[in-house]
Amino acid sequence: MFDLRVCLAVLAHGAAVLFIASTAPIPLHAEEAEESETNRVESAAEPGIVLPPVVVSARKRPENLRDVPLSVTVSGGDSLGPGKRYNTFDIIQATPNSVEVSQGSLASPQISIRGIGGLGAIGGLDKQEGVGVFLDEVFIARPTGYPTFLFDVAQTEVVRGSQAVLYGKNTIGGAINLTTRKPGDDLAVDGLGGLGSQGRREVQAGADIPVVPGRLSARAFAAFSRQDDFIDNEFDGTSLGEQENFGGRFTVLAKPTGDTRLTLALDYSRDRGEGFVFGPVDEALDFQVSFDQEPDEERDIAGASVRLEHAFDDVALTSITAFRGYDYEIFLDGDFTPTSSFTQGEAQEQRQFTQELRASLAFGDRADFTLGGFYMREDFEGTQFFDLAAVSEDQLSRNSLDQQNHTASVFAEATVYLTEILDVTAGLRYTHERKDSAAEVESPSGTFLFGPPASASSDLTFNNVSPELTVSLRPTDNTLGYFRVSRGYKGGGMTQFLGSGTANTYDPETTWSFELGTKALLLDDRLSFEAAAFYVDWQDQQVLQFVGPGIGRKVTNAGASTSHGFEIATTARLTPEFGLSLGYGYLDASFDSFVDPVTGEDFSDNDVPFAPRHSANVAARYTTPLVAGITLTAGADYAFKSSYDFLADNDFEQEPTHLLDAWLTLERGPFSASVWAKNLLDEAYLAGYFQSSGVDLGSPARGRTLGGQVSVSF
What we know:
- By secondary structure, this protein is mainly beta.
- The protein starts with a helix and ends with a strand.
- The relative contact order is 0.14.
């Protein structure tokens, strides 16, 4: 349970000093903020030996990272791309106290920040995650809709800690912001081609096209990648694990006036592969399984958005309208053995519409206000299949879930500048959710492996008020200190599990998150330092419980947890050529009370799944001119995660992992050539885990892969 004394003790232990900086007006557009900040920084110290400004939109407006009273990890520039940070797993690896587990499938990525996340694959069809993913500020409602690769993404931001006001929906652990490249005002072309081990092939091409100079421009981008098998199937001598992806994006940017912007974006991606390849853990870590049925996984994602921005003298208006959706299907060996006993599969179809409106008002140097509203409608149909291997696909036993979800929120946030160095930000978000759900169990084959035929429905309504308060102190332009408290919220719902013949519904879960942090820019702007201590009280936690033999299970609110720890990060420009970033996180996340009402097992004091006690990351970059106009750039990313558990019973854990990626690039004019290595140490670890009939089953992650590529940009 929540204990204020414990909270204050933890925060006091992690506190350094309460610092903070200036209150200059913020431009409407990010590039304007970056240009202004660049000029300020370069006038403060010797050019070329300072840290460049990092502009983020973690608070839905462009700000310098060091001025934001939040814990944010940013990846951008030469850190992103093939062979580097290329998917959400890579950016999570570079983030302290954060874990992503893919389960070896496109459908079930599971992200946990500071120990707070969702149920992932084991949660059934109603997957409600605790870390929100946003593509150009558009919320992606389900993990199956997350992008496979960071195609044409300019910057990523991992916002750690419960978010209450500006995000609101399913961000009790944090949020991930993916920002794509926007059309430039000048004609430009970029392309890339690459080859690598395990049959890797990569082709990308993009172009910026000025239609009306200064007023209307467009960007078109397309990419194709393929990676061959890497897991030996001992059953028939074949291999498994291939993946193929095609993606494209088309963006139009119109500037009818200097104060108005209209951005239209269309995107599509197509994935084909062999996901969810599980076998006994010891064999999986040797990249071996034994299947009599080859997995087949397919997914198509599409989206469209319209963003309208207009700035008056003291008011900035933003409207974001978006449609997104996906189709997904997988069939695979149902018993994960060479015995032809069972087959299983899953199919999903999801469509969503979202609308967000925001108004930001500035009252000189006295106060800033943000008012807004958000609406989402989601239509979802999902079916899981499980039956004897001899049964034809149309006769498989199945359970299904049809949902129509409506979410409406209004929010307000105000920042009052009490003095030149002290400001207070307070906000409130009201959320109303309605979920109409219908679940059904069928068995055309008559085997009744999901139980006897049954159906149930529910019409659930949830209401929540989430406050947030931040106190910031800025004694100098280069120092910041803050205290922040927020209440996170994740809605309840209904699963397709009908083992008892009644609807399996569960309640919302909430968090109270407390954070004390400091940021500073030191040594003539050559070194940045930040630290944060946090305490999270996680109530009415949604958990999975097994209620019978075989596949009998349900989701309920059976646990409460606390998470506390701290994070430290620093970035230094040691010389004009060499930069270094370091990060460390300590996390203690455990169940306060969790007793399984069916088995009587007491999981209280057990570690929360996906919560490594220690995490660390190092990023190094070196750039130097050689001869004949050639520039050499070398980079390396190292990430360490200590062991963590996969399930609440703590019976099996992921061993500590050491992942090292490195690359080397030679550049001359518009041309460049690179070589890279992913998982250079050839670390063997699991992408996913579950237990079946007392056997530990795991899905292996890829080992070492090497590659090279050539690119052009002019």
